[in-house]
Structure formats: C-alpha cells, structure tokens
Design a protein that fits this description.
β4, α5 and β5 form a beta-alpha-beta unit. The chain has 12 helices and 14 strands. The chain has 2 domains: about 180 residues, NAD(P)-binding Rossmann-like Domain (Rossmann fold); about 180 residues, Dihydrodipicolinate Reductase, domain 2 (2-Layer Sandwich). It has a 6-stranded parallel sheet with strand order 3-2-1-4-5-6, sandwiched between helices. A 6-stranded mixed sheet has the order 10-7-11-14-13-12. By secondary structure, the protein is an alpha/beta fold.
Length: about 375
C-alpha cells in the first residue's frame, strides 16, 4: 500500500481513543492525521489534553503529542481532511447518532466503537471473523443517506466477545438456550483504579444496559442481511439470559456460560470446532488479525486474566473449563481483552476488513 489512509479519531482523549492512537502508531495501512474531542479541549495539543490522564502502557506517539485537537462536532472542518474516522466519543446516544450520520452524509465513513447505531437496521454490527457478510447492508444504508462513499459501521459490545465466538463455532450443533454471566473489567467503563478507587476489593452487580446487550447482540451478529427489508434480521431459535457484574480487574472480560444444544455434541467435537474456527481476517491475513482466533485451554484453572488476556496481542479469545452440566448440556468459561478485541482493536480490524472488501476508499482515488 503506497500511501496510507488518512484517519481521524473522534473522542481521542478517552480510554478507547487512546487505545486507537496506540494501536495505529505504526499501522501499515492507516495514519492518524487528525484528533478530535469535546469543545473544551479544542485548540489544545493532544499532550495538554491528556496530561495526567494517559492510560496506555506505551507513551503517546511522538507525532501525536503536539497535534492540535479539533472539536468532534465540527464536521465541515474535519471531513475534508480524512478518508474515514474512528468514533469513540462519550456523549448521549442521540447526539452520537446524529454526529455519526453527519460524517457519513459528508461522504466520510465512520467505524464506530459506540453503541448508538447498533440497532439501526441498515448499520452493520460486525465481528470480522463471524459476520463480515453483514457489510453487504451498507449499500442500503447509502441509499437511505443519499451517499456514494459515506456510511456508518459499528462493532458489538465488548463483553459478548468473551463467549459469542465459541457459540459461533458451535452453531452447527444448534444451541437453543444460553445462560451467561460476565465479569467485566473497570476499563470497560473507561476508568482505571486511580480514577475509581472504590472498585478496589469490590464487586458491583449492575452495569447499566449491559444485560440487554449481552442477550440481544449475539442474535444480531448471527443474523442475516434481508434484501426485502434492506436490513439485518436477527437469528431466531436461540434464547440468551445474562447477568453482568463489574469486578476489580483493569483489563479483561470473563464469561461463565451454560448452553443447551438440539444436537448432542461430544466434548472432543466442541473443542475441535473451537480450534479449527477461522474467519475472513485470517483468510485475508489482515494486519491486526490473530493467527488463532480462539484457543482452548486444557488446564482446570484457565483461562486467567493474568495469564491469558493478552493472547494473540489481546486479539484472540480464550476458552476453558468445558464440561458437562447437571442441568444444561455443557458449561464453559471465556475470556477476551475488552479494550483490544472488544473495543479499539476490534474497530481497527473491522476497518481493515472494510478496506479489503472495497468499502473504505481513499478520497484521493474517488
């Protein structure tokens, strides 16, 4: 790729925005040329805006340090400067929906980490290893928006990626009922322990909106594009119920899952299905794709956050403790990195898939 795509990051000062900046520092396809945040940070350098709030393990990339922040809502200024934007803003959902559509209508695609458009019928919500065919709905979204290049694509909630990949590998065995409990890291709320000291040694049995996402979003990911309605239609025949709990972990969402199947798979079949599972990112050898999407761990005490959260640079999913249950057919434990696979890393991988499938284009080539 001779010239990199020019990328803007909306919400660049928050935790997910910081993760985008960190991931894109040496990306072979994408170059961050613009950062934007709320109006109170407009005109500040990036380093000034995140002074005392930089949360990544690596320092701010040199070329970003003195970049001057734009205001997210200034679409007319930002759109002409970039080929597309990543969106990680922290605003009310109706405001986010409006801003993201403004960028799309300004012929600037949006790859969003936000939940605001996850239930817009013609917006694809994609895990690239699972449902890249959902990008096909973009043509209908463009018809609605009246655009030739602009659209919005989103990624699912971070916590569902701890268990949905395993269930996807097992769809051929026809799962019918799922009980899932997620144990979610504090970085999922955009915080660390310095900012949220009351989480030390604490568990909070409530995360606003998470249970509905955990129960509904997998069904959309497993759904299909319906040309008749020009929308995504959810998969039927699977019921999911969940509980979502905040735990004193910085990175890593763990899920405990119980599942019933129509068929009667043996453990060996289930484990082999996990290990064999590959998707479009692996086939296309996308830069951010894990070589192995799902690993199965045999040890009784795995997966563990400290040992497994960074599997495949945080882009892989770890499954363990698969065993028969006395009420359900099978039960297991899943783990994924919530700000890498579950957030910014998943967004970058989605953008790579959109490039490979021809949906993201350089404006200089249009």
């Amino acid at each position: 790729m001779s010239e990199k795509y020019k990328v803007g990051i909306l919400g660049a000062t928050g935790m997910v925005g910081q993760r985008f900046i960190s991931l894109l520092a040496d990306h072979p396809w994408f170059e961050v040329v613009l950062v934007a945040a709320s109006g109170r940070n407009k005109g500040k350098t990036y380093a000034e805006a995140v002074d005392g709030r930089w949360k990544m393990e690596t320092p701010i990339p040199d070329r970003i340090t003195n970049m001057v922040l734009e205001e997210v809502s200034d679409v007319e200024t930002i759109a002409p400067q970039v080929d597309f934007v990543f969106c990680a803003v922290n605003m009310p959902k109706d405001v986010i929906r409006d801003i993201e559509e403004q960028y799309a209508k300004a012929e600037t695609p949006v790859v969003s980490n936000n939940s605001a458009h996850r239930w817009t019928p013609d917006v694809p919500m994609v895990v690239p290893e699972i449902n890249p065919d959902h990008y096909d709905v973009i043509k209908y979204q463009k018809e609605r928006l009246g655009t030739t290049n602009g659209f919005v694509a989103v990624k699912p909630n971070c916590s569902i990626q701890s268990y949905t990949p395993a269930l996807t590998a097992w769809l051929k065995f026809e799962p019918t009922e799922v009980i899932v409990s997620t144990y979610q890291a504090i970085s999922g709320a955009g915080k660390n322990f310095a900012e949220w000291p009351e989480m030390n040694g604490n568990i909070i049995p409530y995360i606003a909106g998470e249970e509905a996402k955990s129960e509904k979003e997998p069904l959309q990911v497993w759904g299909h594009v319906d040309p008749a309605t020009k929308s995504i239609v959810n998969k039927e025949g699977i019921k999911i119920t969940s509980q979502c709990i905040r735990v004193p972990i910085l990175y890593g969402h763990t899920a405990t899952v119980f599942v019933n199947f129509k068929q009667n798979p043996a453990k060996e079949e289930l484990v082999q299905a996990l290990r064999d599972y590959q998707g479009f990112p692996q086939e296309a050898e996308l830069p951010s794709a894990p070589k192995q999407f799902i690993q199965y761990l045999e040890d009784d005490d795995r997966p563990q956050v400290q040992k497994d959260v960074n599997f495949e640079h945080g882009m892989g999913v770890s499954i363990g403790r698969l065993r028969e249950d006395s009420i359900f057919d099978w039960k297991f434990v899943g783990l994924s990195h919530n700000t890498l696979r579950g957030a910014a890393g998943g967004g970058v991988l989605s953008a790579e898939a959109l490039v490979k499938k021809g949906y993201l284009k350089k404006k200089s080539e249009l």
